[in-house]
Design brief:
Helices cover 57% and strands 7% of the residues. It contains 9 helices and 6 strands; from the N terminus they run ββαββββαααααααα.
Length: 325
């Protein structure tokens, strides 16, 4: 049998083999009503319902190790030892199958309240990268306007300037897609462990960026065609494909497979995802109203809500802890 994943009060305690669980129940490390999951189970159930556990060891006792909670905190390192700082690393977990908007809001706020400095810093870096990627486009636009002010242009000059502008426009749109993909992955990993600035550049990995660009382009086509067909189909596609970029980066999927999986999964919970997207959008708008500076706080918070929704619908892959400095 595989490892047993244990949760208490919606907080992950980690994954353990059956003997560790049996010893933990004896020592009090685990409680009979702690929820647990083990392959190939389809749902979580209390540890008291695990009849296949072996007998506990004769000398079972609480090991001197820290138990990661949902977020880093002050937790006991041993029964009598000093308090230590534990770093949360999410185990693999099955998808919940449903989306609980209240849990999304709670988990996003809990993560933001603990890691807000790193999250605001990551958001500032994302905005800075976006501005840099847009600079050539803005410069080419200024040059075009300067030539227009000088009156009549030679045809070849107009064609050349238009071609340069189109090239930089395509480049800016591509860079924006990769930057945004890395930003949401950074936030997803912040929920799973702790914020790590290099995660912001996940969209630029050699195996990721072609699929991410193709997925973004095809999604735009579907949404645009849907909007032309009485608007509602476009809204459906925009929500249905909203998690495709995360599946491309997180699960290393091809763009079409990611789009199909996102659509099939979101379809069963479409209205809940739609409501969550609206709530996140309103929070982002609030940041704009706060002189735009508020976006440094409202954007990561809103995106954390959406990323917790992703975790509930698609589960978690195993995550490696950050290397110690």
């Amino acid at each position: 049998m595989g490892m047993i994943h244990i949760n208490r009060n919606r907080q992950s305690l980690g994954q353990f083999d059956e003997q560790d669980v049996a010893d933990g129940l004896k020592s009090g490390k685990f409680l009979p009503d702690d929820l647990a999951w083990q392959e190939p189970m389809t749902e979580w159930k209390p540890l008291a319902g695990f009849a296949s556990l072996p007998a506990p060891s004769e000398h079972a006792k609480l090991p001197p190790r820290e138990f990661p909670g949902e977020f880093p905190g002050e937790l006991p390192g041993s029964p009598s030892g000093p308090l230590v700082r534990a770093e949360f690393v999410a185990p693999s977990r099955p998808p919940d199958g449903t989306m609980d908007i209240g849990r999304c809001l709670e988990a996003g706020w809990n993560c933001f309240s603990v890691h807000w400095i790193n999250l605001v810093l990551g958001t500032f870096i994302m905005f800075s990268l976006t501005v840099v990627s847009q600079t050539p486009l803005q410069v080419s636009h200024i040059v075009m306007e300067m030539f227009k002010k000088h009156g009549k242009q030679e045809p070849w000059v107009a064609v050349a300037l238009g071609s340069v502008f189109f090239f930089f426009w395509v480049l800016a749109m591509a860079a924006s897609a990769l930057i945004k993909g890395g930003f949401v992955y950074f936030l997803l990993m912040s929920l799973r462990r702790t914020p790590n600035i290099p995660d912001l550049f996940a969209g630029f990995k050699e195996s990721i960026w072609p699929q991410l660009l193709l997925g973004t382009l095809v999604t735009i086509v579907f949404v645009a065609l849907g909007l032309l067909c009485l608007i509602l189909p476009g809204i459906y596609f925009a929500v249905a494909f909203c998690y495709a970029p995360m599946l491309i980066i997180d699960r290393k999927m091809g763009f079409w497979d990611a789009m199909q999986l996102s659509r099939r999964t979101v379809h069963t919970q479409w209205f809940s995802v739609f409501v969550l997207v609206i709530i996140a959008g309103l929070m982002s708008v609030l940041g704009v109203l706060l002189c735009c500076v508020g976006m440094l706080g409202t954007l990561p918070l809103a995106s954390l809500w959406l990323m917790e929704g992703y975790r509930q619908l698609f589960g978690d892959c195993p995550v490696e802890p950050l290397p110690k400095m």
